[in-house]
Amino acid sequence: MPEKPRYQVLVLSEDAALQERLRLALQLQEVNLETAQDATELLNLVQKLRVGSVILLDGAVRAVESGQLLAALQEAGTGQRCAVGVISAPVTGEDEQDEAAALWSRRLRDGVMDDILPRETSRQQWSLRLSALRRIHLLRSELAHLRDCSLAQSERDRLTGTMNRDAILSILFRETDRVQRLNQGLCVILLDIDDFGHWNAELGIEACDDLLRRIAQRIQSLLRSYDMLGRMGDDEFLLALPGCSNVNAVLLAERLRTDIFDVPFEVGGRSIRLSACFAVAESKGRSPVVVLRDAEQALQEARLRGPDHIRSASKNTYGWDTEFTVDARVLPA
Length: 333
Hints:
six-stranded mixed β-sheet, 19% strand, five-stranded parallel β-sheet, Rossmann fold, 14 strands, 333 residues, alpha/beta
């Protein structure tokens, strides 16, 4: 049974001599070499490449020189799966050489490719150059992955896994910009768990930390894929709801109250029923500072009414206040 090639190399070049040099250089290697006649054929072949493959683009090809093909590969996410190298185009004069070198160096810095390979590379050196190209791509991919993981961790609340305060506020400012541009809806729901300090004393910090995680999971299960949830304080959460009207936000708050807090939590063999107060505020393109101030005021009014209340910052909208109270108490196991 023939051995599976270590990796694939896909070449786009109109230079028959260059193609033959590559073929001879790689024929003894465990490499599968394919050639494309034009940019369209290359883009079709790219879709079949395995992760870790190498794409070599001849800088003398018009679509490569103009940057159009590199842009198409980047848009398709090819650079995340495969190493992309450009073979330098032949030049005739020093001015042309300097201009071409500056152009390709700039594209290399922009990250649209992984390396520039000299056209005069000898047949014996091609294997080493391709191995180096793959290593460069692997290192860049690992660094990008580590950077993304680090960024994701810095935006997450360590206890609940939701966005932390800074991250959710940053999202809210960004969404407000979108609302202003597109004249679309945006609402927030601010919720505070009633008398959570009592449960910390009654059940212990570790048990209450677990309760917060489970509450966050229940909330997340009721949200749309593009809704956002963040932890604002010890027992306070903020929901950002793009494209949501005030009426629908109030209805969601009611559903959160019944589906999350009316359903008891099992803690240490006991059945615990929690409650929360909710505040709803509509963006209308206003500054998030103003919207959050409205939400905080509405939440304070809900707390004054007692546990398990919903209050909307819009007085003339359905759901200004919901008169329904359930005391948080320990139920029989």
